[in-house]
Write a structure and sequence with these properties.
Layout lengths: L5 H24 L15 H11 L8
């Protein structure tokens, strides 16, 4: 009961991928590195990241 089985890991991977893939694509389309989307899993940094991306000048807007 104390360890996670393969089914638990598959569910965690599925939930992780259904969240991270769209966030990665949105951040990439905005002109930033997709790796910034990994910050969305850090509890306080996800809100800071949201506000920074909302009010900063996106690299795609500069052209």
């Amino acid at each position: 009961m104390g360890s996670l089985t393969i089914w638990h890991w598959l569910i965690i991977f599925f939930l992780f991928s259904t969240y991270i893939v769209p966030v990665w694509r949105i951040v990439s389309k905005a002109g930033f590195s997709g790796a910034w989307s990994l910050l969305s899993f850090v509890p306080v940094l996800n809100f800071i990241m949201l506000w920074v991306f909302a009010f900063s000048t996106w690299p795609r807007e500069r052209t």
